[in-house]
Amino acid sequence: MTRAEALRAAVRRLKAAGVGEASEDARRLLGHAAGLSPAALIAAMPAPQPSEEAAAFQALIERRAAREPLSHILGRVAFWTLDLAVTPDVLTPRADTETLVETALAGIADRTAPLRILDIGTGSGAIALALLSELPAARAVATDLSDAALRIARGNAEACGLAQRFQTAKTRWADGVDGPFDRVISNPPYIASAVIETLEPEVKDYEPRLALDGGSDGLAPYAHLMAEAQRLLAPGGAALFEIGYDQGEAVTQLAQALGAATRLVHDLAGRDRVVVAEFGEAGPA
Predict the structure, then answer these.
(1) pLDDT at residue 284 above 70?
(2) How far apart are CA 215 and CA 232, in angstroms?
(3) Roughly what angle, to the nearest 10 degrees, separates helices 22-34 and 3-16?
(4) pTM of this structure
(5) Staple partner for 189: which of 52, 154, 206, 214, CB 3.0–4.6 Å?
(6) What is the pLDDT of residues 20-45, one digit of tens each?
C-alpha cells in the first residue's frame, strides 16, 4: 500500500469515528509516523509505506478515532508563533485564546517597556509565553494549582528561550502573589458544570476538569479574579479575562461592581471572548 492509499483509508476511518478535521489530522499523523515534514510528505506520498511506519500510523489513527486529541497524540500544539508541549495535565491552547493575546498587545503603547505580567492559571504557559515573545523587556509570573502544569509551563519557557523572564508560582489563583503588575491576564475555567458532559469527547474525556469547570453557571472564578486584579494592578494597568461566548454581560457587571471601566472584545467569529477591566489611575483600593 502506498502512503497515499494509507492516508485515504485513515481519513475514512476518522470520518466514520466523527472526527471533524479528519483529512488534516490524518495527514499530520502520517507525517508524524513517517518522520517527514509536510513538504517531504507530499513528495513521498506515491511511495509504498514501510511496514514499521504502517503499524505506527495505524496505531496513531486508532488513538485519534477514539477521540484522543491530536495535541495529546503529537504532544505538541502551535499557539501564536510558538510550538508548545502539551499533555493531558494542561488545557490544549486554542486559537480563540489568541484573541486574549492580541487584545493585551494592542493595549501596550511601548512594547519595549519593562512590563510585569501576571498569568493566573497558566496551564501550558501559552498566554504568558506568547506575550513575552512579543515584549522583549517584560517579565511574567505564572500561577497554577497543578505541579504537573507548572512543570510543562517551565519546560515550554525553556524551549522557547524565555525562561529567564518567566517565573512560576504554585497557588490557587493569585493567593499570596504580590504586585504590582501592569497586566493581569487569565483564561479561567468558564464552562458550566452540567455542560461539560455535552462537549465533544476530545474535551470532556481528555482535558483536565480543573481547567474546564467554572461551577454551576460557569462564572465561579470571575468575582475572585476581578478582586485580585484590583489588588494587584499597577496604576494604569489592565486586567484581561477570556470568557465564554454568552458571558460578556455577566462578567462585565462583576468588574463594574468593583468600579472598573470595562471593554468587551469579540473573537474572529464575532462572539464575546475577552473582558478588559481597568481600575483607574489611583490603583487598587
Answers:
(1) no
(2) 24
(3) 140
(4) 0.93
(5) 214
(6) 999 999 999 999 999 999 999 999 99
